[in-house]
Design a protein that fits this description.
About 70% of the residues lie in helices and about 0% in strands. The chain has about 150 residues and is an all-alpha fold. It folds into three domains: about 5-45, no CATH class; about 55-95, Arc Repressor Mutant, subunit A (Orthogonal Bundle); about 100-150, Arc Repressor Mutant, subunit A (Orthogonal Bundle). α4 packs antiparallel against α5, α5 runs antiparallel to α6 and α7 (about 100-115) packs across α8 (about 120-135). It is elongated and about 65 Å long. The N and C termini lie far apart (about 65 Å).
């Protein structure tokens, strides 16, 4: 069976899920395609709109915030790791407004707080702070949620 062209392989990869230019480049290099061929394919894909780091970042932020319940800091780091430029990642994560961040953090906390019923209040607070900070929520959001819970 003849080897697929770099363009066909890239289309196959993009059929699974959207990828950044860096991710696609790495996959093509892994498959040992020629650097010149990789560049041509990436330019062609960008020209037809199949790879666009800006769109990728916006969609990634939306999905990770609503589905995975991650905070802006963690989303930013994940975008950088996926090869999105820092400016694009920063711009995309700034679209998250504080109300949405607070709502997502509250939902996450509500799902976990039931599991911590038998713990003393200090242990609950420690776990909540740890969970929210690992998920990338801002210290202001964490403080606001924990402080409001303490008053209830």
């Amino acid at each position: 069976m003849p080897r697929k062209s770099a363009f066909e392989y890239a289309l196959k990869l993009l059929g699974y899920r959207a990828k950044t230019e860096k991710e696609l480049r790495l996959k093509l290099v892994e498959k040992k395609y020629q650097p010149e061929e990789i560049e041509v394919v990436l330019v062609k894909l960008a020209k037809i709109g199949l790879i666009d780091d800006q769109k990728f970042a916006v969609n990634y932020v939306r999905d990770k915030l609503s589905i995975s319940r991650r905070g802006p800091r963690r989303i930013y780091i994940e975008l950088i790791q996926r090869g999105v430029a820092k400016e694009i990642a920063d711009q995309a994560t700034r679209t998250i407004n504080k109300e949405d961040e607070l709502e997502v953090a509250q939902t996450l906390l509500n799902t976990r707080i039931r599991q911590w019923n038998k713990l003393d209040p200090l242990a609950k607070k420690r776990r909540a702070v740890g969970l929210l900070s690992r998920r990338g929520f801002s210290p202001q959001t964490i403080h606001q949620l924990i402080f409001n819970r303490a008053e209830e």
